[in-house]
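INFO worker-7 received task bundle
INFO bundle size: 2
INFO processing item 0
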Amino acid sequence: MPFSYANLKIDTFQPMKIESIDIKLDFNDTNGILKPFSEINCGPLPNHDMPGVDLTNPYQQTGFSFIRTHDFSGPTDISEIFPDFNADPSLESNYDFQRSDTYISAIINAGCQVFYRLGESASSEKKLREPPEDFNKWAEVCKHIVMHYNDGWNNGFFYNIKYWEIWNEPDIVGFWNGSAQDYYQLYHTTSSTLKSYNSSLKIGGPCTSSITNPEYTSGFLSYVKNNGLPLDFFSWHQYADTPNQLFLSSKTIRQLIDNYGLINCENINSEWNINIITPQRDKDNAKNTAFTTCCLSCFQDADLDHAFRYRGTQDPNWLMRLIGFDLSLFTHEGMNKKPALSYLAMNNMIVDTPIRLNTPIMDASSGITYIAGISKDKTNLTLMISNFNAAKTESTFEITNIPWDEYYTVAQYSIDNSHNLDIIDQSENSSTTYSSNLELKSNSVHLIRLTNSSYLPNEGPKTAQIPFILQLKILDPITRLLGIFLLLLIFS
């Protein structure tokens, strides 16, 4: 379970108040390529200790392309692959890749890349939180894991896994009982060992849970710089009250990395979601859908290279759901939760209309964001608008220089508590300028598709119902206290 003490505060979001929004798009005014940010923690297989189905088909339909291996609770963890730390790391017989191979191969077979977290899943087992007894041996074990998955060692594979992240959230005792200096040394030894084996690997860290902790931001970067260590990516985590917080954090990290002269170092958020202490219903309903869509939109302008949402697969434990700790996009039975539709809508944009149209910078400070794209052959245009927690707002939008002489179709899709990416309006138009008005309800998402072809994206699938007990706001103070108590019990 991801955790930061910053998550214990619930911030009542008061967006910059706006009465209306005026969107102007020019079909000929483009600005690069839209980024999908189709990255996720866990899956497509369910955790071995939980019930669940293979989510390969939902992952593919939703467009996920990059999976981080954290919190499989055993598979891919160092302690499972190399169970006897006193053993010789050079001998094949001392490794157990059986379950890890199943999970890694499922990621590859789903058509996804692997973002491999070297370390341990969240656990109450104290020894898994301790720094390795021998950093050199631990680094050798990591090297042999690379050899197994990339170079066929020990009946292995040739998967060409590029990204290797060293440990997870060493800034909190729930994952690391050592000091920051201990982590620096582990990173030093492991990154040097892996780069010596294969210089093309992308090595990074520190996957800090808090970007305000100087030991794992400026302190870590100073150590890397002063010791000439490789750092291909800086990874960090945030569970935020607002998309704007994630936007500002990402810009801050990018500036910090650049200040140390590491301009080629990627900026990767390897865990993100809405605040962990948010009630469960608001993780599964239109509120988190609008939050997610706003994030995918403002990430376009946040100087961010990758953003791995936590998480895809579900722990169906009822206590975890009651206190709001189920952060999954899909149920263990394979059904979409409503926030998964944000990725489905984004995937429709990326597949059909990847060339971005020029818009102002989207920072989500008002709670409202919009992005737009066109297809390479200029037969389609998509506009996606989201309203996270802002008041009902009137919008007008105008699209100019539409290059079609004949009639074209305009379809409006909606996601809110009553709609699952459903078409709520469809019309024909023939003007080279298209104008319309749209009411943006709080916590809603709208996808506008203009096309002169016969193709329209499918409407969204049915989504999981939120159980009645989880909809009761009267229980919020109790479940919040239970959640805080459990986090402190586990991680303090």
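INFO item 0 finished
INFO processing item 1
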Amino acid sequence: MSAIVILAQNTFFYKKSVIFDVIYSPKKTLLSKYCSKKKIKYINGVKMNTLQAQKALQITFSSKI
């Protein structure tokens, strides 16, 4: 746990960044809280996995869903 805190403290994100977090459980992670505090756009793993699945289905079936 402390390694994650150190990483967050030593990491810099631009205000215009969009952060995709691969974690979807728990919904609130240290990274999500950091982004919220710094007003950086954050998308959790649920959204990312949904977008990936949608794209995979489009490629597989050659159509938009």
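INFO item 1 finished
INFO post-check item 1: The two ends are 39 Å apart (CA to CA).
INFO post-check item 1: The CA atoms of residues 4 and 52 lie 25 Å apart.
INFO worker-7 idle
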